[in-house]
Amino acid sequence: MKLVMAIIKPFKLEAVREALTELGIQGLTVTEVKGYGRQKGHTEIYRGAEYAVSFLPKVKVEVAVDSDIADRAVEAIAAAAKTGQIGDGKIFVLNVDRAVRIRTGEADSAAL
Question: Are residues 70 and 77 in contact, defined by beta-carbon separation less than 8 angstroms?
Answer without folding.
Answer: no
